[in-house]
Amino acid sequence: MQQQLRNTLWRKAFMAALLLIPVFLHAQVTFTDSNLPIVIITTDNDPDTGQPMEIPDDPKIPASMKIIYRPDGTRNYMADQDTPAFLNYNGRIKIELRGSTSQMLDKKQYGWTTYENNNTTKKNVSLLGMPSENDWILNGLAFDASLMRDYLCYNLTRQMGQYATRTQYCEVIINGDYRGLYILQEKIKDDSKRVNIEEIDENASSGMALTGGYITKADKTTGGDPVAWQMDSYQGWPTDFIHELPKPEDITTAQNDYIHGQFQLLESTAGANNASVANGYPSVIDIPTFVDFMIINEFSSNVDAYEISTFFHKDKGGKLRAGPAWDFNLSLGLDVFGDRSQPDVWQFSNDDNEGAKFWTDLFNNPTYKCYFARRWHQLTQPGQPLNFNSIEAFIDATEQLITEASVREQLRWGTVPNLGQEIHFIKDFILERMPWMDANIGSFTACSNITVPQLVISRIHYNPSENTEFPESDDQEFIQITNAGAAEVNLTGVYLSELGISYQFPVNSTLAAGANLYIASNPAVFEAKHGVAPFGQFQRNLSNSTQKLVLADGFGNVIDTVEYDDDEPWPDADGSGSYLQLVSLSLDNSLASSWVASTSDALSAGGFGAVSSTAIYPNPVENTLYVKSAEALRSIEVYDIYGKLLQSQTVSSNQLSLDFGAYSPGMYIVKASGANGTVTGKILKR
Questions:
Q1: pTM score
Q2: How many CA atoms lie within 13 A of 82 on its CB side?
């Protein structure tokens, strides 16, 4: 009954809002060219009438689409639609209406999928420079006379370092009818370049397999999907949660119960003010994503935040994460259904769309609020995404980009009577909003100088070679982590925080000073190959091209970051049998020059210690380099600073000499391996 009442009130509010929109006789627009990309959609003919089909809410219907976009960024012309060099896309799609409230407007929004010419096979394509995929959206900018609230907030979110849908303005023609200015953007879905999780196996019912991946949203039920569960809120009515991935019709009871349980755990720990990294809310959620999600929604005073169009995602083995941020058309002072987007309220505590209780409970927790305040302070500094000068410059550039199209938008729909005035309103709102947040956000002194352990990502095997004994490359992957500090580290709360690979250290696990450990993709294969058991198993697999690895503590404070690459100047460890090895723990491991490619399989505890009493001299060297050791040496390798192997010798001696006379001046890496391990040195050639 309460839900029915809410839906009735919502419909009445919407109809009242429509009455406030001035009646405008929509004009046909003669459209020939644009400074923006041009999207031309032609639906297939109806077999009964012979006329182009109308685009329905559901199902998607077949159509053809062309995107005119000159690669040099110059002006685009309708006359270019038959010039292949100027077509960013020319192929088949299936298209439908999308949105909820926006469908009641004359200007519609669309969801569409790219297909092969057979109309059966989905086709991944790169559109307007965005990563290749097949599911896309044409955002009609509903209710927003500034034409930029979504565009601004999505771009700011990405600048903050979180994924948000990529966006490109365009002008759209459907069946010969000019439809106005749109944003061509990505649909939220699991993909390595979008929400970088992998969909849970349909048969997953227990253990690690049950932990991900999921995409869940708090939203209205007007789209027809059933409510998975509800959570209490402080404003007096529940918030509905809906499955996005897997789809509601595909999710099993065990999977529903698991992901619901994660939200219940967040609710109970946040409600109990439990900030323990062992069993409090930091053990459940990825705090940086929750903080950034709240910041972008509070900065914009988004009236739909927390209760509508609010997404969450979770990868296998990873923490529950907030986002991607979505739907900002009612924000920055605009609310056609009331007067809720004010500069002096918190949207999670405004007696309206507050969402589940955990949002307010998190903010009221002193530790979480400290991190919230610290991040807000960081983001608003000069040169940062939420600094007003940066925002104003972005708004001004966007206004310049869309001014021409806004004139046609006004002529077609009558929704943009004064673009400049709308943009001034947004700027004035931000100028009032930001000082209010500064004054009400609290201090970050308690979390301003967090000390993190001296853990270092020191070896990475991302694309092992295959052979008859170990035929699967992915099964041989590993990461080494070394404690470079002088004290034992308690690893409770430490985790790999960047999506793509997941691992959380067990509660009360430790790593001694100077010691190292391995986490592997397949522990059994690792032990069979290297003769030592790894510490743990990470989920998913390392990229064979480039990947960012971030080691963080329980609150998301970064301990170490490495973003490796399979191209120069990074050493060649791409399928060659080599792995990346950090030359020295004292070097910056974010630099390619700090790594070499190694082939040693001796990964035992002693295998990574230095060969005792080994000397490599002189340093700097001019012509001859000497290596002496108390134990017999087995091999000597010389690399340039980019990791290219220059010479390799198999030896059985305590000493030898290396000719450096032919080498150019610069830095070189020398590796000496013996029965007790390997020692690596950086040698300067004069």
A1: 0.88
A2: 1
DSSP structure class, residue 655: E
What lies within 8 Å, CB to CB, of 663 at 6+ separation is 646, 685
Query: Which residues, in sequence order, are CB contacts of 674 under 8 Å at separation 6+?
Result: 611, 614, 629, 631, 632, 633, 634
DSSP string, 558-593: EEEEEEEESSTTS---BSSS-EEEES-TTS-TTSGG
Span 287-315, mean pLDDT? 98
Q: Which two tokens stand for residue 162?
A: 């979180």
Phi, psi (rounded to 5 degrees) for 14: -65, -45
Peptide bond into 534 cis (omega under 30): no
- In the structure, what pLDDT confidence band is assigned to residue 11 with cuts at 50, 70 and 90? very low
Q: How many CB atoms lie within 10 A of CB 65?
A: 21
Instruction: Kindly write down the DSSP assignment for every residue of 283-323, as one continuous string.
Output: GTB-HHHHHHHHHHHHHTT-TTTTTSSEEEEE-TTS-EEE-
Q: pLDDT for 359-411, tens place per residue? A: 999 999 999 999 999 999 999 999 999 999 999 999 999 999 999 999 999 99
Burial-class residue 273 by CB neighbours within 10 Å (0-12, 13-18, 19+). Answer: middle
- The DSSP call for residue 263 is H
Contacts of 288-291 with C-beta under 8 Å, sequence gap 24+, read 288/375, 288/497, 288/556, 289/162, 289/321, 289/322, 289/323, 290/321, 290/322, 290/362, 291/368, 291/371, 291/372, 291/375, 291/556
Tokens of 219: 């939203």
Note the residue count of the chain.
Answer: 686
d(CA 507, CA 279): 9
Query: pLDDT, tens digit, for every residue of 403-441?
Result: 999 999 999 999 999 999 999 999 999 999 999 999 999
Q: What's the rounded Cα separation, in Å, for the pair 323 and 158?
A: 12
Both tokens of 152, joined, read: 């601004």
DSSP conformational letter for 458 = E
Please tell me the distance from the alpha carbon of residue 653 to that of residue 676, in angstroms, as a whole number: 14
> Which residue type does 166 have?
R
DSSP, collapsed to helix, strand or coil, labels residue 369 as helix
Structure confidence at residue 602 (pLDDT)? 63
Long-range contacts of range 374-382, CB-CB < 8 Å, 24 or more positions apart?
Answer: 374/444, 374/447, 374/448, 375/288, 375/291, 375/292, 375/295, 376/295, 376/437, 376/438, 376/441, 377/444, 379/160, 379/295, 380/434, 380/438
Task: Give the percent of the chain with pLDDT over 70.
Answer: 94
Q: Distance between CA atoms of 63 and 70, rounded to whole angstroms?
A: 23
Q: Which amino acid is at 235?
A: Q
d(C-alpha 480, C-alpha 589), whole Å: 13
pLDDT per residue as tens digits for the range 233-268: 999 899 999 999 999 999 999 999 999 999 999 999
Which residues fall within 8 angstroms of residue 501, CB to CB, at 6 or more apart?
A: 538, 539, 540, 541, 542, 547, 549
The secondary structure of residue 444, as a DSSP letter, is -
AA identity, residue 546: T
Strand, coil or helix: what is 223? coil
Whole-angstrom distance, CA of residue 269 vs CA of residue 290? 15
Contacts of 300 (CB under 8 A, 6+ apart): 149, 153, 328, 331, 332
Q: Which residues contact 641 (CB under 8 A, 6 or more apart)?
A: 569, 593, 666, 667, 668, 669
Give start and end residues of each alpha helix (H) in 149-251.
Answer: 149-159
Residue 196 is predicted with a pLDDT of 98
Other beta carbons within 10 angstroms of residue 655's beta carbon come to: 12
Q: Which two tokens stand for residue 540?
A: 């998913």
